Amino acid sequence: MSSSTAILLSLALPLAGALGIALASRINNNVREAVTLITAGTLAWTVWGLLPALLAGERPSISVAEVLPGIDIAFTVEPLGMLFAALASMLWIVNSIYSIGYMRGNQELHQTRFYIFFAIAISAVMGIAFADNLFTLFLFYEILTLSTFPLVSHKGDAKTVQSARIYLSILLTTSIGLLLPAIIWTYFIAGTGTFTVGGILDGKLEGPAVGLLLGLFVFGIGKAAVMPVHRWLPAAMVAPTPVSALLHAVAVVKAGVFTVTKVIVYIFGIDFLFAEPSGGWLLYITAFTVIAASLVALRQTNLKRMLAYSTIGQLSFVLMAAATLKPFGEVGAAMHMVAHAFGKITLFFAAGAIYTASKKTEIFQLRGIGHRMPWTMTAFTIGALSMIGVPPTGGFISKWYILAGSLQAENYVAIATIILSTALNAAYFLPIIYLAWFTKEDTAPPREHGEAPFAAVLALTITAALTLLLFFFNSPLLILETQLVQGMP
Questions:
Q1: Which of 63, 152, 346, 396 could form a disulfide with 463 if both were Cys (CB 3.0 to 4.6 A apart)?
Q2: Half-sphere exposure of 104 (CA within 13 A, CB side)
Q3: What is the pLDDT along the chain (489 residues), one digit of tens a residue?
Q4: Taking the mean position of all CA atoms in its chain, how far away is CA 75?
Q5: What's the chain look like in SS3?
Q6: Considering the entire predicted model, what is its pTM?
Q7: How many CB atoms lie within 10 A of CB 78?
Q8: Which of 226, 290, 284, 288 is nearest to 424 (CA)?
C-alpha cells in the first residue's frame, strides 16, 4: 500500500465503519460492536504503517482538491501529526472495548448512534492530524466539534442538552470568531497556510501584531481550554464516561493542544516566535491556567468534575512547555500529550467503572472502595501518580523533559509552575488514593457490588499498563519527536 493511499484510508475507514455499524445494528448488537472493533483495529494498523517511512525521513503527502486558488484540501504526515494520529487510533481500540462494558452495564439507550458518531469523530481526528495546511485543519476541526455534540448530549434530558449547547456554542464561537480570522489573516500576509518547517511568518509580520495573531490562534482554538475559554469542558461532563474519555484523552482536547503546538512550530516558527517579545504572554497565561485549574480541581467533590479541571491544567502544561521555545520543552510537550492521554483515559475509565458498579459519583463516597474494586482502583492509582509525575509512570518522563526545557530557557516562571502544580496535583489525587485504600467503607453500603463488567476492567487495565510501559519504553517516541526540534537553538 502506498503512503498516499494509507492517508486516505485513515480518513475513510472510520466513515466506512460508521456505515457498517449502522447496518450491523439491524442484525444484532454483537455484530455492531464487532464492526466497531474491527474498524478501530484496521485504522490503527493503517496509521502505524506510516511510521517506518516517517522515521526514514519521508513526509508522505497527498492533495485532494483545490477549493480556491492557493487554498486546497491536502494532507501531509509529519512527526507531530503522526504522534496524534497513532495515539488516537490506538486508544480508539481500547475505548471501544471499554464502551462495550460501560454501555451494556448501564443499559444506555441509543448505543448505535453513540458508536456511529464516535467513528465520525475519529475520522475528523485523522483529518486534523494529517492536515497539510490551515484550511484543511479548520475544516476537520469543525467536523470534530459537530460530530461530538450528539455524543455530549447523548442522555437527552434537559440538563444534558443545555450543557451540550454550552459545549457547542463556546467551541463554535471561538473557532469562527477568532480562529477563522487568524487563518484568513495568515493567508493574507504570508500568501499560504501550508505547515512549513521553520514557519511562514518570518519577515511578513512583526511587533505587537505577532502577539495579536498568536492570541487569535490560542483563544480561537477553544479545544485547548486555555482560560477563559475553558467552560465547555466541565459542561461536557454530562456525557457518558466513554465520551468523557474521548474528549479528555483521545480526540477533542488533544486536537486543541496539538493544533496550538503545530501552529507554533510550523506557522510562526520557533526561532521567529522566540525573537518576538510580543509573543511571550503565552507562557504566562498558560502558567496561570495550570495553577488556577489545579486550585479549582482541589475544591471539587464530584469525581468527574475534578478530573475535568485537572485536564484543563494538564493541557496548559503542554502549551506552557511548547511556549518555552526550547528543544527539551517541545519534546516534553509532545511526550506529555501521550503521558496525559494514557493517564487521564485510565482515570476516566476508572470513574466510569465505579459509577457502573456502584453508582457512586462523589469523592467522599469512595471510602474503602479499593477493597471492593481492586483492579479499578489500582488502575486509578497508577493514572493519578502519572498526573502527579511519580516514577515509574509516563508522567514522570514528560515532566522531566518539560522541566529540562524550562531550565534550558532559564524561565523561572515555568519552573515555579511545574513545582507548584505538581504539589497541587498531589493534594487532590493522594487523598482519593488514601480514601480508597486506607479507610473503611461505610458500615451499611447502599449497594453491594464488585468490579464493573469485564470489558470495562480490561480496558482500564490496558491503559494503566501503557502508563507504566511509557516510563520504560519511550525511545521510539523520543526519536520521532526529536525530528521536531532539529536545528533549534
A1: 346
A2: 15
A3: 788 899 999 999 999 999 999 999 888 989 999 999 999 999 999 999 999 988 888 899 999 998 888 899 999 999 889 999 999 999 999 999 998 988 887 777 788 999 999 999 999 999 999 999 999 999 999 999 999 999 888 887 888 889 889 999 999 999 999 999 999 999 999 999 999 988 999 889 889 999 999 999 999 999 998 999 988 888 887 777 777 777 666 788 889 989 999 999 899 988 888 888 888 899 999 999 999 999 999 999 999 999 989 999 998 988 998 888 787 888 888 899 899 999 999 999 999 999 999 889 999 999 999 999 999 999 999 999 999 999 999 999 999 999 998 998 888 999 999 999 999 999 999 999 999 999 987 755 556 678 999 999 999 999 999 999 999 998 888 877 776 665 444
A4: 21
A5: CCHHHHHHHHHHHHHHHHHHHHHHCCCCHHHHHHHHHHHHHHHHHHHHCCHHHHHCCCCCEEEEEEEECCEEEEEECCHHHHHHHHHHHHHHHHHHHHHHHHHHHCCCCCHHHHHHHHHHHHHHHHHHHHECEHHHHHHHHHHHHHHHHHHHCCCCCHHHHHHHHHHHHHHHHHHHHHHHHHHHHHHHHHCCCECCCCCCCCCCCCCHHHHHHHHHHHHHCHHHCCCCCCCHHHHHHHCCHHHHHHHHHHCHHHHHHHHHHHHHHHHHCHHHHHHCHHHCHHHHHHHHHHHHHHHHHHHCCEHHHHHHHHHHHHHHHHHHHHHCCCHHHHHHHHHHHHHHHHHHHHHHHHHHHHHHHHCCCEHHHHCCHHHHCHHHHHHHHHHHHHHHCCCCCHHHHHHHHHHHHHHHCCCHHHHHHHHHHHHHHHHHHHHHHHHHHHCCCCCCCCCCCCCCCHHHHHHHHHHHHHHHHHHHCCHHHHHHHHCCCCCCC
A6: 0.92
A7: 21
A8: 290
Pairing type for strands 71-76 and 61-68 reads: antiparallel
Lookup: cell for 48: 502505524
In angstroms, the CA 413 to CA 406 distance is 9
